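Researcher: Hi, I'm a grad student and pretty new to this. My advisor asked me to get structures for two proteins we've been looking at. I'm not sure of the right format, so I'll just paste the first sequence and hope you can take it from there.
Model: That works fine. Here's the first sequence with its structure tokens right after it:
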Amino acid sequence: MKKLLIVVDMQNDFITGALGSAQARAIVPAVKAKIEAHRQSGGAVLFTRDTHGADYLDTQEGRRLPVVHCVAGTQGHAITDNLEVGNDEIFDKPTFGCPALAERVAAGAYDEIELCGLCTDICVVSNALILKARLPETKITVDARCCAGVSPESHRAALLTMEMCQVEVVRG
């Protein structure tokens, strides 16, 4: 069985930087353990990075969320040093949910796909639903213990949304 773990946007700016939170910092050890266990079982790991340019504040997203973050080449754009990336692929995505990511994953012909990371209510849910739409017969799972949202309420709402769309949610 071919398995993929997608680690969504575990970047400095979402953990300790411009948009960091205590909830994001709290999941780092669990995400690290999940990556290690997944690798030990022979599964593939793919990381995503939210990726913006210097013109971020001039974009639609930047006008609605006027906090410069995850600008390519900055320390905030980097995956946290607490996670070992090794030779795993890093997919730079220009927006929340990325159809190009779904196409890349579909080309891998995985039997199971699991997502974890940040933020549950923005990038995790967006990519989980795009993947489910692109690969309706593939088992897609999100580990709630390894995700954090903008707020606890929006985290829970995103988990419920994914469950309603037949994404399996693993709860602690």
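Researcher: Oh nice, that was easy. Here's the second one.
Model: And its structure:
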Amino acid sequence: MKTELLIERFEEMILADKNLSLKTIEAYKSDIKNFLSYSDYEINADKNVIQNYIEFMKERKIKQTSIMRAVSTLRQFFSFLQAENIITDNPTSNLKLKLKNKPLPKVLSETEMQLLLSYFDSNRNLKLKAMLHILYGSGLRVSELISLNIDSIIQDEETNRYIILIRGKGDKERIVPINNIAISVIKEYLSTRLEKFKLSKFLFPSTSKTGHITRQGFAKLLKEVAVDAGIPKNKISPHVIRHAFATHLLSHGADLLSIQKLLGHKDISTTQIYTHVSNEKIKDLVSNNPNLSKLKIK
């Protein structure tokens, strides 16, 4: 059977079985075609060929995340070929992927976050203040934050508490709670919106093509405020605030499954990085405090 037809059948299979975006499907197809080009379109490749391909990608300095995705794609592709009786053995079944440890995410301490939030006590940039309170109070992705609709913030009639309805990756919806301080800031900000934005559906509108503030614009404003608040600009980004949200929740006793749901992670293994961040912080504390030297961190 021709290779092109096999790829088409694989595409049909994952479209039927998995809730993936067209962009992700195209990435899968690209991964397969890149591998087949490397292996001279040999469908019956053995494990050594795939292992050599991984080394080839490393030598080309392809990002670790891209290598991991490519290997995941090949695992699924060869499993499909085996299920279709096109190959007898799956060369990826016992494949060992040796990659460098992923660097731990940058995280602001709770003191630094309070320093950043308190900066707005004397600064009247209510839009940025509202964005920061939502980001740190809910752990949204920056893409979710900048494109928030006003009607995404909903008040529960029974409890009077507020929630945010998020449509995240893969068009999946999730609900995250938002605290009263953030709601108070949002209301104050909305009362001062420019007349030209009064009818906008976006919570943070702008004159950009999208109709809302851009991620680049928000990141730039955040760095400027961080410097004024006494935090180095290379230590701050919207994603760092999301990391701070998760890490600080974990350090205060929140369970990993709850944090996974709040962040919208598909796989809990993605969320587990925050356990390592917390452990690293505890290790630093122990090493700098002789009174805690007997505490052991696994």
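Researcher: Is there anything I should tell my advisor about the second?
Model: You could mention this: The CA atoms of residues 187 and 268 lie 34 Å apart.
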